[in-house]
Amino acid sequence: MLRNLAYIETETGGDLDRALARAERARQKMPDSVDIADTVGTIYLKKRMAEPAIATFTWVLEKDVDNSTFRSHLADALDLRSNLTGSEQELRALLRGRKTETGTQRIRELLR
Question: On the CB side of 90, how many CA atoms lie within 13 Å of its CA?
Answer without folding.
Answer: 24
